[in-house]
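Lay summary. Proteins are chains of building blocks that fold into shapes, and those shapes determine what they do. In this project we predict the shape from the chain. Here is one chain we studied, written as its sequence of building blocks.
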Amino acid sequence: MNKKGSLELSVNAIVVLILAITMLGLGLGFMKGMFGKVSQNVDTAIGQNQLANPPTVNNPFTLSSNQISLARGAAQTIILAYYNELTSDQVTAPNISNAYLADGVAFLKPNALAKRNVTVGNIGTWQILVEANKSKASGSTTSIGFNISGRYADLIVQIK
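And here is the predicted shape, written in a compact code that computers can read:
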């Protein structure tokens, strides 16, 4: 008996299966990379649309609000936006002035201040969640300073 045909079929099936799995892996890797880039662009676009005062060449670093009022234990998201008016792309992130991190306000999600590539003529945005300390007395005010590339902005937080 000659059973050579069934052996060829199984070898061909294995080769096709390996090629299919390889192509699926490459396709998934490509899609993950593309969705990652699109996700970052969407976050930036959403952040820019939420700004009442978007950054410009004359005022390249802005906050969505310069003053907020929070109840004790409450939180609010603030958007920081930076317009790169320089002549080269920048990989940058905002810094928080430690002198202004007074008692009463805590920052959540510290990874929100991760470095981002801000190309020339474009806007980079960061979302910061600010939470009022539960033990802080009502009526207290805290000033928080942010800076990026030599530009400064202050956020005044009042505890209700």
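What the prediction tells us: The CA atoms of residues 18 and 129 lie 47 Å apart.
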